[in-house]
Write a structure and sequence with these properties.
Length: about 210
Amino acid sequence: MPRDHGSFPDRARVALLLIDVINALDFPGSSSLLEQALPMAKRLAVLKRRAKAAGVPSIYVNDNFGRWKSDFQHIVRHCTSKSAQGAAISKLLRPRSNDYFVLKPMHSGFYSTTLEVLLEYLHVETLILTGIATNICVLFTADDAYMRDYTLYVPRDCVAANTAKENTSALDQMKLILKADIRPSEQIDCRKIARAASRNGLNGVERKRADQRL
């Protein structure tokens, strides 16, 4: 029996996760990350528009910056203000009214958040992970997603770390260990990925949940 009571209008096998892209970048050493992340954000903005056209929902998985307040709009306002070093990125990727968001207290988007519940209601089985930083929050989220049987795409030009070396190292690990597809964003065909996921019927995530209900 459906349990969402109309609260989750979207139904999609694929979801685009934007990890920590709404970010003031006001921590030590963030200048080098900003240098890497700004060109990444421009490519991600294009991918997000293509995902929307294909009916793929966008989910902002964003740090709460230790404030423990579930007010994402406050975070958006702060990170797009003139005083925020990361304002250019935050403005470029500012969420729309029909986007979803999940606030996280730690590195992984799954740790102590509602992300898994949201993905279950949306019937998602494939995740396109993007954002910052590749070797920290993106990697931790990918680890947890892999353990939950999600199929992973991590477009290598839509993630960023402090250095190109750290970025490449994390991507290589996700490809080798987590079986992530790291093709560039221009080769990501959201419609094709969604059709393939639908043809697969029950995915690993749904099979596990079905088994638990027996």
